[in-house]
Amino acid sequence: MFDDVRNYLWLIPALPLLASALIALFGYSALRERSHWPCILGAGVSCVLSVLALIGVAGGADGGAVYYTWFQSGTVNVGFSLQADGLTAVMLVMVTFIGTLIAIYSAGYMRGAPGYPRYFAFVSLFLFSMTLLVLANNFILLYAAWEGVGLCSYLLIGFWYQRPAAAAAARKAFLVTRLGDIGLFLGILLLWKSFGHSLDYNEVFMAAARNPDPALLVPACLLLFLGAAGKSAQFPLHVWLPDAMEGPSPVSALIHAATMVTAGVYLVARCMPLFGLAPDAQLIVAIIGAFTALLAALIALTQTDLKRVLAYSTVSQLGFMFLALGAGTAQYGLAGLAVTAAIFHLFTHAFFKALLFLGAGSVMHAMGDVIDMRRFGGLRKVLPVTHWTFLCGAAALAGVPLLSGFWSKDEILAVAWDAGGQGAPHTGVYRLLFFSALVTAGLTAFYSARAYFMTFWGEERIPEEAYHHHVGDAASVACESEDEATPAASPTPHFESPGIMTWPLRILAVGAVGVGIVVVLPMGHFLEAHWIRQRFPQSLLPAESAHGHNILLMFVSGLVALAGIGLAYLFYVKKPALPGVLAKSAVRLYEASRNKFYLDELYAAFIVKPLSGLAQLLRVLDQYIVDGLVDLCGQIPSFFSFLFLRPVQNGLVQFYAILMALGVGGFLLSVLLR
Amino acid sequence: MNLDYRLALVLLLAVPAAAAIVCALLGRTRGHLIRWVALAATLVNVFLALYVALGFLGERNYSPVARTPFGMAVTFQPELVPGADPADIHRTTWKLIDFGRLGAIQFYIGLDGINVWLIVLTAVLLVPSVLISWNSITERVNEYYAWLLTLGAGMLGVFLAFDIILFYIFFELTLVPLFFLIGIWGGPERRYAARKFFIYTLAGSLLTFLGLLAVVVVCYHKPVDITAPELTFSIPDLVRAVNTHLMMNLPADRAFWSTFQFWVFLALFAGFAIKVPLVPVHTWLPLAHVEAPTAGSVLLAGVLLKLGTYGFLRLCLPLAPDASLQIGLPLIGVLSVIGIIYGAFCALAQSDIKKLVAYSSISHLGFCMLGMFAFNLAGLTGGLLQMINHGLSTGALFLLVGMLYDRYHTRQMADFGGMGAKLGALTFCMVFICLASVGLPGLNGFVGEALVFFGMFEVRPLYAVLGAAGIVLGAWYLLSMLKGVFFGPLKEPEQEGHPIKDLDSREVAAIAPIMALCLFLGVYPQPVIRSAQDDLRIVETLLQNRKPVLAANQTGDALAQEPRQAKEPTQ
Hints:
heterodimer; A: mainly alpha; two-stranded antiparallel ribbon; B: mainly alpha; 3-stranded mixed β-sheet; 20 helices; disordered C terminus
């Protein structure tokens, strides 16, 4: 059974699907508050199988299989075909591992929430779609899973559907990503038409390598990238992700930080054999990535909602990954290094960002759903576990040397630097992007330290809601003897989250700190041996395996990170008045950043409003002009009848029908008897 | 139980017709009995439809294209024809009106890959139509169910018919029951809506009838076999005759056939385009939908609109292939794209949920037409699947809107809010069906849409690209409806006191089978696709064979004209 990867590959998505079906069927009858069990078990077993698949792939047993024909007609053939190679195995392990931890955490976080079974059914469905997404071996199956994760994102953002903001955010997320999905779908159509009517990755890649026509590849790649930009929240389609924070925090951690939003990065990495052959498309990928990274980091500087800071940080980090991918061109065989850097950052980011969101969730849980950083502070003592785990995550995100974020960010900077080397196309642009990325790295360190200091340092402030919230909840954990009417009377109510939530935090914290240094070398070799060497066309492969680290660059980026943190320490711990002074002195810049550069307003004014107006216009046009003309035509006979056919128009439908039948019959006879 | 398939096929028409008569005769007072009779009849019909579908799958083990005699054009080869001719089991001997030696109008029905699933769809949708009317129709119950069942028989007849006159009779027969269903049991403007629906579609279909007759007459006057001229009304024979003439491509006849096809195309287009409906001849549809009782809307959207698309597929493409290629593709391609976008925008601007769904039909039928007019197997298959998919998902949407209306007697979106908290099961069904309708992979809409786009992208990428806008617009109006009506804080319309309950078992029985089919067709559509391939390949072959001929004729004409043009400068 376990000697061949193909035997159990299908189980990895199937188990979460089964879990989802079980919860959907029995969640409200038999399972109820035990609904998390199928979800956790499904995710956990999938995780074990994913690790087995990783080991199998490392042992050279990569392979795929077509399980059944989904649909086939004419030249379109879509099989339910899965495959495991190095990239898929890494993604699977990451998705299922983080998924399992978050499912466990959710069991504590969502306890007592109405719709508890619904939540776990959706999470399981998401894990099914996400694992299918990385396992798919053809573009249409990928697209199907792509839409599937989008659906789960929609359902989970709108989990608290009675909140207008959640309902609006869910719809926005679905529509904005769907806009990108059109690009993805058209890109698939173009690839299918241009490269031999095939939809299988390898066949498309091989056909493209045989005939790398930029006139086909560049538009196809840009269309695929449009899809990736939608899903991975890149400018100009990034606006849905910050709003998606209306969903429960574990959902933000799982879907909107660690897994689904990285699907775009996965897609571009997967299609590197195409992108690598289209340097013009790559340039755009890199520019969009670097620009998004910078833009989102600037916005993150001034946000006061802890989850929004993290959301913009996610947008920014995804931008880093796209910058890395965009640097991968045939020149110097950078394609391999580029995807390695991007996937490595994706991997480490998943750990520390999931940790940060879960930490934010833990803060929210304790603070009675308050997430505005201005309303709490100095929570170091109150939430000890949350505090130190959050610190690990923030430090990793900031790029503190030797933590996981440091290694992967450094690889990205190195690739961006190399892409600007002499003789490469667009040298100057890539150099510019490199410096922009370096600035962004400094901003990243600043805002992550800012979020940390604002939440956990300074004078201890706990919002009113925290006490109300803990009347029923924490009371059962810590102060059982206290009566419910006077929560404030309890001198030190227990705020820290229960163990079921803090243990996943601890595990992720270890990962955020250590995963970088442990996997930095093995992952590069693994991806190269079991994916890049096998799937990339010859022209994209480097002459020799090159994983040297640029020591100078590491030093510089480490310094930048520490400088950012130091500045934040100065601003938010030493001299808390300073930010206000600075905001006053650059009021326009501050306001622009705080208002997300007014992009939502711009879209509303220039896209949504005109289209809604057009819709209203067409409605009126349809009712009064198009239909009006029809009614006018309808008046013509009665006008004539008014003149001389009045008696025939007696208004009886039967009479008309007889006349029609007679007329038709007469016509028929006249034709036949001619 | 061993029921003869051919008999079952006749019963498929006879059962609803007989049940309609029984219902009518039972009188107005025995409402409960009438409902059960209607339900039993529709359930029997579902059984019969599935039974004949299985029979068809067992019968068909050859490729019709491969079995065509040399020198003849391919044509439809229906199976399980009642009264089959022993010499050729794809023909019938049953005559309706005999013209003696000349020929006969026949009772010629049968199954092939194109109609078999549409028949199943019709039979399946009749059951919820009966169930949804259970409590909401209390006046003149006997007449109501009689008309409903007549409508069912008429629609099944259209799909089953392989005689052109029989086809037309059934085609028009569907108008009368729906006219009464809308006119008697409809909303406040029911008389206007019913009259408009009737006259509008009848006006178009009379032109269609002229076109069909023209084909019959021309085939009689220009027999393929000159020694034995025969007046035939059989659709397969007419298709073969016309296309064999086209294959012969006699220079003397070329101009005639070209003009002839042009007019036939226009005549058929007139009726079918109104029925589909294509923009700009669609305005009867939203009105008819809004005024019709729920069951009427379900059948109107679910099946009746398919009569138009089915007409294009069964008659227009095979009988006028050159005209379809030359004027059909640009004309219908453009109208479909306009319909997709225009319908979606109009849907977005509606305040009445039912009207929103009605306009969404216009948008979705645009996808369907776009696929068929790609003329390749992928597109044709996609178009056919879209007919079935749209029937299921839009039928279900109307059912759900009807259920909401039954509770609150309003369909204005502004009156509702947060229904998810109050009506959990209904909300679940609505979200499910909306997702099917926006083409979410894993549910039925996606496969059809994908095939349509694949087919059209191959031929005219621009139409596919523009049509793709419908994907996002479709999500926009449906999700906005969900957000407004079912999500957000609870807001109930004013209603007179009686407690509002979630779906009862009757309503679940009406909607659940459709949802199951949506899921099945989304996950495993290949059996349906497979069974339709052979017959769609006939249509594809007829059209694709014409492409090189048309190109050659054109260059031939150009060559013939060139010397003349060359002379001009010298003069």
